[in-house]
Design goal:
With about 400 residues, the protein is mainly α. Helix content is about 85%, strand content about 0%. The protein contains 17 helices and no strands.
Length: about 400
């Protein structure tokens, strides 16, 4: 399979989670009104989706190191089709929440393979560019998804949204069967206990843990906006579902522009300097969100757009940076990256959708504090990364020797 086909294929698989979440955002107020429940209750179908999705990534990723990427893709996409149909047939909000939890588990099986396959197949600068192009394709999903959902609501029932999700996942499943061949060249043949061994090894890799643990915080405001946006635009600013979809899509355009800019500037500038610039950009945007608050919708939209631009630029650079810290357990490491990013995002969603007296202020604080923390810890991480490779080898050998001594 040629590399361009790989990029498109991986982009389609990566788009599964945002399609599952963003397509039904315009329907959240309508679902609450139809069943006579609070919007915060319906929002649980969004928040708990991410709660289920995030830790399950670790299971799927580790299994892919044992059985290969292809079986995990097929299992995850097949389960996603079934769970989407269950969402469409839900009889009350609690059935919808449960079905959405299963959908999140299934979506993790597919999306956890994207970075693992990219790590298997591409190297160096080429991988950074590929991850950036996937980011562009991935950005189209949240831009288009609410518009699709709004169009469906204009002419039909919200249940059709989940039926459409099932159809799109069926297309991805068919492509996996038709064109994808296994890319994991070496598989771990250990028994069930190897699941814990892989993550134990990763936990001893201090550079991986530090890189993943700090950079993932930027996801909290970005995904928090996904959950907060419907309430902000439709309820607070009094906009229609269609106008909300347009503004939500515009935010996705900023993220796409950031990923597109990354494909250009990475050829000319040092990646560490570029990462620093993205942190500063997110911090500046978060500060504007904190200061302007709920005053004017255009300032809220532009400030969030700037945050999304630098977030979109940072993702390919950061994901590549974290993946470079490992040379084995690739599936587990890739899943650990996505898992932590979405755990941070789920926390951001929970914070953003809580019934605060001043929700815009809380969102602004979160959008400021998260990039500030990442920026302050960046020098420590950079110092660890720039250590000589042989120093890292000595660390690993020392850790393994210590483990053997404890076992003895």
């Amino acid at each position: 399979m040629q590399k361009r086909i790989y990029i498109v294929f991986l982009g389609m698989i990566a788009a599964t989670p945002p399609l599952a979440t963003d397509m039904y955002l315009p329907a959240i107020p309508r679902i609450g009104g139809q069943w006579g429940v609070a919007q915060s209750t319906v929002n649980l179908s969004l928040v708990l989706w991410f709660v289920a999705y995030s830790p399950t990534l670790l299971v799927w990723g580790s299994l892919s190191d044992r059985y290969g990427r292809r079986p995990i893709l097929l299992s995850g996409l097949g389960a996603f089709v079934v769970s989407s149909l269950l969402c469409a047939m839900s009889g009350d909000v609690y059935q919808l929440i449960v079905a959405r939890i299963f959908q999140g588990i299934a979506a993790a099986g597919a999306s956890s393979m994207v970075m693992a396959i990219a790590r298997d197949y591409f190297e160096g600068k080429e991988r950074q560019k590929v991850l950036a192009w996937i980011g562009i394709i991935l950005g189209l999903a949240p831009m288009i998804a609410p518009s699709i959902g709004s169009a469906i609501l204009k002419h039909g029932n919200w249940r059709i949204i989940f039926a459409v999700q099932a159809i799109l996942a069926t297309v991805s499943l068919s492509l996996t069967l038709a064109i994808y061949r296994e890319t994991a060249l070496v598989l771990d043949k250990d028994g069930p206990g190897s699941f814990f061994k892989r993550y134990a090894r990763l936990s001893r890799n201090t550079r991986y843990v530090l890189a993943n643990g700090t950079t993932g915080l930027l996801s909290a405001p970005f995904l928090g906006f996904v959950a907060f946006s419907a309430s902000a635009y439709i309820v607070h600013f009094g906009m229609s579902e269609q106008r909300f979809a347009i503004l939500f899509g515009a935010n996705a355009v900023f993220a796409i522009m950031g990923s597109a800019a990354c494909t250009r500037v990475i050829r000319r500038y040092n990646e560490y300097r570029l990462i620093t610039v993205t942190y500063l950009g997110c911090l500046a945007a978060g500060t504007v969100l904190l200061i302007t608050g709920q005053a004017v919708w255009i300032l809220f939209t532009l400030a969030m757009g700037v945050y999304s631009f630098f977030f979109g630029m940072s993702r390919p650079l950061i994901n590549h940076l974290v993946l470079e810290q490992v040379d084995r357990d690739i599936g587990a490491a890739a899943s650990g990256i996505v898992c932590y990013q979405f755990i941070a995002g789920a926390c951001g969603m929970a914070i953003a959708t809580y019934e605060w007296q001043r929700p815009f202020l809380v969102f602004g604080v979160m959008a400021t504090v998260c990039p500030l923390v990442v920026l302050l810890t960046w020098p420590l991480l950079l110092k660890r990364i720039r250590r000589r490779p042989e120093d890292h080898t000595i660390d690993i050998e020392s850790q393994e020797a210590g483990t053997k001594e404890m076992s003895a």
